[in-house]
Protein backbone atom coordinates (compact mmCIF):
# COMPACT_ATOMS: atom_id res chain seq x y z
CA UNK A 1 0.00 0.00 0.00
CA UNK A 2 1.46 3.41 -0.96
CA UNK A 3 2.11 5.89 1.81
CA UNK A 4 -0.44 8.69 2.32
CA UNK A 5 0.10 11.56 -0.08
CA UNK A 6 1.74 9.37 -2.72
CA UNK A 7 0.38 10.03 -6.19
CA UNK A 8 0.43 6.88 -8.24
CA UNK A 9 1.80 6.96 -11.78
CA UNK A 10 -0.23 6.00 -14.82
CA UNK A 11 0.82 4.26 -18.00
CA UNK A 12 -0.23 3.51 -21.54
CA UNK A 13 1.08 0.17 -22.77
CA UNK A 14 1.17 -0.86 -26.41
CA UNK A 15 0.37 -4.53 -25.81
CA UNK A 16 0.48 -5.97 -29.34
CA UNK A 17 0.01 -9.70 -29.84
CA UNK A 18 -1.30 -11.90 -27.00
CA UNK A 19 1.87 -13.95 -27.53
CA UNK A 20 3.82 -11.31 -25.61
CA UNK A 21 2.37 -12.95 -22.50
CA UNK A 22 4.70 -15.88 -23.21
CA UNK A 23 7.68 -13.94 -24.56
CA UNK A 24 10.77 -12.35 -23.10
CA UNK A 25 11.80 -9.39 -25.24
CA UNK A 26 12.59 -5.71 -24.90
CA UNK A 27 8.90 -4.80 -24.66
CA UNK A 28 8.05 -7.27 -21.93
CA UNK A 29 11.22 -6.33 -20.05
CA UNK A 30 10.14 -2.67 -20.15
CA UNK A 31 6.76 -3.67 -18.72
CA UNK A 32 8.51 -5.69 -16.03
CA UNK A 33 10.80 -2.79 -15.15
CA UNK A 34 7.79 -0.46 -14.94
CA UNK A 35 6.15 -2.81 -12.43
CA UNK A 36 9.36 -3.04 -10.39
CA UNK A 37 9.84 0.74 -10.33
CA UNK A 38 6.27 1.89 -9.61
CA UNK A 39 5.11 2.30 -6.00
CA UNK A 40 3.07 -0.74 -5.01
CA UNK A 41 -0.59 0.19 -5.55
CA UNK A 42 -3.61 -0.84 -3.52
CA UNK A 43 -5.28 -1.73 -6.82
CA UNK A 44 -4.82 -1.54 -10.58
CA UNK A 45 -7.50 -0.16 -12.90
CA UNK A 46 -7.00 -1.08 -16.56
CA UNK A 47 -8.74 0.46 -19.56
CA UNK A 48 -8.25 -2.27 -22.15
CA UNK A 49 -8.96 -2.05 -25.85
CA UNK A 50 -10.60 -5.45 -25.62
CA UNK A 51 -13.57 -4.43 -23.49
CA UNK A 52 -15.12 -2.27 -26.18
CA UNK A 53 -18.85 -2.40 -25.69
CA UNK A 54 -22.10 -0.42 -25.67
CA UNK A 55 -21.98 0.81 -22.05
CA UNK A 56 -19.53 2.26 -19.55
CA UNK A 57 -18.95 -0.28 -16.80
CA UNK A 58 -16.36 -1.33 -14.25
CA UNK A 59 -15.73 -4.87 -13.06
CA UNK A 60 -17.01 -5.35 -9.52
CA UNK A 61 -16.51 -9.04 -8.80
CA UNK A 62 -14.31 -10.34 -6.00
CA UNK A 63 -12.68 -12.96 -8.25
CA UNK A 64 -12.51 -11.85 -11.89
CA UNK A 65 -12.02 -14.65 -14.40
CA UNK A 66 -9.18 -14.76 -16.92
CA UNK A 67 -10.66 -14.22 -20.40
CA UNK A 68 -8.95 -15.73 -23.46
CA UNK A 69 -10.52 -13.39 -26.00
CA UNK A 70 -8.69 -14.56 -29.13
CA UNK A 71 -8.47 -17.62 -31.35
CA UNK A 72 -5.90 -19.54 -33.37
CA UNK A 73 -3.06 -19.35 -30.85
CA UNK A 74 -1.02 -22.13 -29.19
CA UNK A 75 -2.68 -24.06 -26.36
CA UNK A 76 -0.01 -22.78 -23.98
CA UNK A 77 -1.56 -19.33 -24.24
CA UNK A 78 -5.06 -20.61 -23.42
CA UNK A 79 -3.67 -22.39 -20.39
CA UNK A 80 -2.44 -19.13 -18.83
CA UNK A 81 -4.42 -17.60 -16.01
CA UNK A 82 -3.96 -14.40 -14.04
CA UNK A 83 -5.71 -15.07 -10.72
CA UNK A 84 -5.64 -11.54 -9.31
CA UNK A 85 -8.46 -10.63 -6.92
CA UNK A 86 -10.97 -7.90 -7.63
CA UNK A 87 -11.93 -5.04 -5.31
CA UNK A 88 -15.70 -4.40 -5.41
CA UNK A 89 -15.50 -1.36 -3.15
CA UNK A 90 -13.20 0.35 -5.64
CA UNK A 91 -15.79 -0.19 -8.35
CA UNK A 92 -18.18 1.85 -6.22
CA UNK A 93 -15.53 4.60 -5.89
CA UNK A 94 -15.16 4.71 -9.67
CA UNK A 95 -18.93 4.97 -10.12
CA UNK A 96 -19.04 7.87 -7.63
CA UNK A 97 -16.08 9.72 -9.13
CA UNK A 98 -17.49 9.68 -12.63
CA UNK A 99 -20.90 11.16 -11.79
CA UNK A 100 -23.00 12.54 -13.43
CA UNK A 101 -21.91 10.02 -16.06
CA UNK A 102 -23.36 6.63 -15.22
CA UNK A 103 -20.89 3.78 -14.79
CA UNK A 104 -22.38 0.36 -14.15
CA UNK A 105 -20.84 -2.20 -11.81
CA UNK A 106 -20.36 -5.50 -13.63
CA UNK A 107 -20.49 -8.42 -11.22
CA UNK A 108 -20.56 -11.37 -13.60
CA UNK A 109 -20.12 -10.71 -17.33
CA UNK A 110 -16.48 -9.69 -17.87
CA UNK A 111 -13.22 -10.23 -15.99
CA UNK A 112 -9.57 -9.75 -17.01
CA UNK A 113 -9.00 -9.86 -20.77
CA UNK A 114 -5.70 -10.35 -22.59
CA UNK A 115 -5.16 -6.61 -23.02
CA UNK A 116 -4.77 -6.61 -19.25
CA UNK A 117 -3.24 -9.94 -18.25
CA UNK A 118 -0.69 -10.15 -21.08
CA UNK A 119 0.86 -6.97 -19.65
CA UNK A 120 0.31 -7.56 -15.92
CA UNK A 121 1.78 -11.05 -16.16
CA UNK A 122 5.12 -9.29 -16.74
CA UNK A 123 4.62 -6.09 -14.73
CA UNK A 124 3.10 -7.73 -11.63
CA UNK A 125 3.72 -11.46 -12.06
CA UNK A 126 2.60 -12.42 -8.55
CA UNK A 127 -1.04 -11.51 -9.40
CA UNK A 128 -1.62 -10.45 -5.79
CA UNK A 129 -2.76 -6.84 -6.41
CA UNK A 130 -6.51 -6.36 -7.00
CA UNK A 131 -7.35 -5.67 -10.65
CA UNK A 132 -10.40 -3.96 -12.14
CA UNK A 133 -11.24 -3.09 -15.73
CA UNK A 134 -13.16 -0.11 -17.07
CA UNK A 135 -14.97 -0.64 -20.35
CA UNK A 136 -14.76 1.54 -23.43
CA UNK A 137 -18.17 2.82 -24.46
CA UNK A 138 -18.32 2.59 -28.26
CA UNK A 139 -21.13 5.17 -28.41
CA UNK A 140 -19.04 7.96 -26.90
CA UNK A 141 -16.80 10.37 -28.78
CA UNK A 142 -13.18 11.23 -28.04
CA UNK A 143 -14.13 14.27 -25.92
CA UNK A 144 -16.35 12.15 -23.69
CA UNK A 145 -13.58 9.62 -23.14
CA UNK A 146 -11.16 12.43 -22.27
CA UNK A 147 -13.64 13.84 -19.75
CA UNK A 148 -14.09 10.44 -18.13
CA UNK A 149 -10.31 10.15 -17.89
CA UNK A 150 -10.14 13.53 -16.14
CA UNK A 151 -12.73 12.40 -13.61
CA UNK A 152 -10.56 9.41 -12.74
CA UNK A 153 -7.56 11.55 -11.74
CA UNK A 154 -8.51 11.39 -8.06
CA UNK A 155 -7.85 7.66 -8.04
CA UNK A 156 -4.15 8.34 -8.50
CA UNK A 157 -4.18 10.00 -5.07
CA UNK A 158 -5.88 7.03 -3.43
CA UNK A 159 -3.35 4.37 -4.31
CA UNK A 160 -4.73 3.25 -7.67
CA UNK A 161 -2.42 2.58 -10.61
CA UNK A 162 -4.26 3.26 -13.87
CA UNK A 163 -3.11 1.60 -17.09
CA UNK A 164 -4.43 2.12 -20.60
CA UNK A 165 -3.72 -0.91 -22.77
CA UNK A 166 -4.04 -0.64 -26.54
CA UNK A 167 -1.79 0.46 -29.42
CA UNK A 168 -1.17 3.89 -30.95
CA UNK A 169 -1.13 2.20 -34.37
CA UNK A 170 -3.17 -0.99 -34.70
CA UNK A 171 -4.08 -2.06 -38.23
CA UNK A 172 -4.57 -5.81 -38.34
CA UNK A 173 -5.56 -5.84 -42.01
CA UNK A 174 -2.10 -4.53 -42.97
CA UNK A 175 0.06 -6.81 -40.81
CA UNK A 176 3.14 -8.07 -42.64
CA UNK A 177 5.01 -10.60 -40.54
CA UNK A 178 8.04 -10.43 -42.82
CA UNK A 179 8.63 -6.97 -41.30
CA UNK A 180 9.09 -8.35 -37.78
CA UNK A 181 10.47 -5.22 -36.07
CA UNK A 182 9.66 -2.62 -38.73
CA UNK A 183 6.91 -0.10 -39.30
CA UNK A 184 5.44 1.11 -42.56
CA UNK A 185 6.21 4.75 -43.36
CA UNK A 186 2.65 5.82 -42.54
CA UNK A 187 2.73 3.94 -39.23
CA UNK A 188 5.98 5.58 -38.20
CA UNK A 189 4.74 9.03 -39.23
CA UNK A 190 1.60 8.72 -37.13
CA UNK A 191 3.48 7.24 -34.18
CA UNK A 192 5.95 10.14 -34.31
CA UNK A 193 3.12 12.68 -34.47
CA UNK A 194 1.46 11.13 -31.43
CA UNK A 195 4.75 11.15 -29.52
CA UNK A 196 5.27 14.84 -30.18
CA UNK A 197 1.86 15.67 -28.73
CA UNK A 198 2.08 13.26 -25.79
CA UNK A 199 5.42 14.71 -24.72
CA UNK A 200 4.04 18.27 -24.76
CA UNK A 201 2.33 20.13 -21.92
CA UNK A 202 -1.06 19.23 -23.41
CA UNK A 203 -1.06 15.48 -23.99
CA UNK A 204 -4.81 15.54 -24.57
CA UNK A 205 -4.07 17.17 -27.92
CA UNK A 206 -3.51 13.61 -29.16
CA UNK A 207 -7.29 13.44 -29.65
CA UNK A 208 -6.97 16.04 -32.41
CA UNK A 209 -4.85 13.69 -34.51
CA UNK A 210 -8.04 12.64 -36.29
CA UNK A 211 -6.95 15.30 -38.79
CA UNK A 212 -3.54 13.74 -39.41
CA UNK A 213 -3.08 12.42 -42.95
CA UNK A 214 -2.27 8.93 -41.65
CA UNK A 215 -5.02 8.68 -39.01
CA UNK A 216 -7.37 6.50 -41.06
CA UNK A 217 -4.60 4.01 -41.83
CA UNK A 218 -3.24 3.98 -38.28
CA UNK A 219 -6.58 3.96 -36.44
CA UNK A 220 -9.08 2.06 -38.60
CA UNK A 221 -11.16 1.41 -35.46
CA UNK A 222 -10.97 3.44 -32.23
CA UNK A 223 -10.76 0.59 -29.70
CA UNK A 224 -6.96 0.42 -29.40
CA UNK A 225 -6.50 4.19 -29.56
CA UNK A 226 -9.04 5.14 -26.89
CA UNK A 227 -7.04 3.85 -23.87
CA UNK A 228 -4.35 6.36 -24.80
CA UNK A 229 -6.85 9.21 -24.36
CA UNK A 230 -7.50 8.18 -20.77
CA UNK A 231 -3.81 8.30 -19.86
CA UNK A 232 -3.39 11.65 -21.64
CA UNK A 233 -6.34 13.00 -19.62
CA UNK A 234 -4.93 11.61 -16.38
CA UNK A 235 -1.65 13.44 -17.05
CA UNK A 236 -3.26 16.88 -17.16
CA UNK A 237 -0.55 19.33 -18.27
CA UNK A 238 2.30 16.93 -17.46
CA UNK A 239 4.15 15.55 -20.49
CA UNK A 240 4.21 11.79 -20.85
CA UNK A 241 7.55 9.99 -20.87
CA UNK A 242 8.39 7.31 -23.40
CA UNK A 243 8.84 3.92 -21.74
CA UNK A 244 9.60 1.91 -24.90
CA UNK A 245 9.05 2.35 -28.61
CA UNK A 246 9.12 0.17 -31.67
CA UNK A 247 6.96 -1.37 -34.40
CA UNK A 248 6.02 -4.89 -35.32
CA UNK A 249 4.72 -6.41 -38.56
CA UNK A 250 4.59 -3.06 -40.30
CA UNK A 251 1.32 -1.81 -38.86
CA UNK A 252 1.60 -2.26 -35.08
CA UNK A 253 3.10 0.37 -32.77
CA UNK A 254 4.47 -1.01 -29.53
CA UNK A 255 5.03 2.44 -27.98
CA UNK A 256 4.40 2.72 -24.25
CA UNK A 257 4.31 5.84 -22.09
CA UNK A 258 4.25 6.68 -18.39
CA UNK A 259 3.41 9.72 -16.32
CA UNK A 260 4.36 10.41 -12.71
CA UNK A 261 7.03 7.74 -12.37
CA UNK A 262 9.67 8.45 -9.68
CA UNK A 263 12.38 7.42 -12.15
CA UNK A 264 11.47 6.76 -15.77
CA UNK A 265 12.68 3.50 -17.27
CA UNK A 266 13.23 2.38 -20.85
CA UNK A 267 13.39 -1.18 -22.13
CA UNK A 268 16.78 -2.23 -23.37
CA UNK A 269 17.08 -2.93 -27.10
CA UNK A 270 19.65 -5.60 -26.24
CA UNK A 271 17.10 -7.91 -24.59
CA UNK A 272 16.14 -11.24 -26.15
CA UNK A 273 14.15 -11.14 -29.35
CA UNK A 274 10.43 -11.67 -29.56
Count of individual helical segments: 8
**Mass-distribution shape:** globular
Rg, Å, rounded: 17 Å
Helix content: 25-40%
User: Any low-confidence stretches, pLDDT <50, length ≥5?
Assistant: 264-274
Strand order of the largest sheet: 7-2-8-1-12-9
Strand portion, in percent? 15-25%
Task: Quote the distance from N terminus to C terminus.
Answer: 33 Å
Task: Give me the secondary-structure category.
Answer: alpha/beta
Element string (H = helix, E = strand): EHEEEHHEEHEHEHHHEEEE
According to DSSP, the number of beta strands is 12
Largest sheet: 6 strands, mixed
How confident overall, as mean pLDDT? 94
Structure description:
The chain has 274 residues and is of the alpha/beta class. It has helices at 26-37, 75-78, 88-97, 114-123, 142-151, 185-198, 215-218, 226-235, and strands spanning 10-14, 43-53, 57-59, 65-66, 104-106, 111-112, 131-137, 160-166, 241-244, 247-248, 252-253, 256-259. The strands form four sheets. Strands 7-2-8-1-12-9 form a six-stranded mixed sheet, sandwiched between helices. It has a two-stranded parallel sheet with strand order 3-5. It has a two-stranded parallel ribbon with strand order 4-6. It starts with 9 loop residues before the first strand and ends in a 15-residue tail after the last strand.
